[in-house]
Amino acid sequence: MSDSQHTHGVDPTGTGYEKSDVSVPWITTIALIVIGVIVVFIVILNEYFLVTKERLVYDTVLSTPSAALRELRAREDEELHSYKVLDSAAGAYQIPIDRAMELQAGEAHERRLKDR
Questions:
Q1: Residue 25: in which H helix or E strand, if any?
Q2: pLDDT of 76-89, one tens digit each?
């Protein structure tokens, strides 16, 4: 055998590095796979963080109404669903909203029948 076969890929002068053993496509492929796995892992962790954050905000802020909101809702319910005298001299009375809607619909129906 000749000396050229034993020194395949090695600089015959003895300086530099061995270029034949490095497979750039293989290393690039592995690097891309590792980067892809890391990116997928980051996306999954980000989605998990967002879902957990939304659940925490809902549990701490949105699921328990404040005392002021409960009081407001109670006042609204009372205003919308009760009878009350507003001005007895003028004959102004408050009636529940459901009853007021029935009366208005009945009056509108009677007007429509008269117009025919």
A1: helix 24-57
A2: 999 999 999 999 99
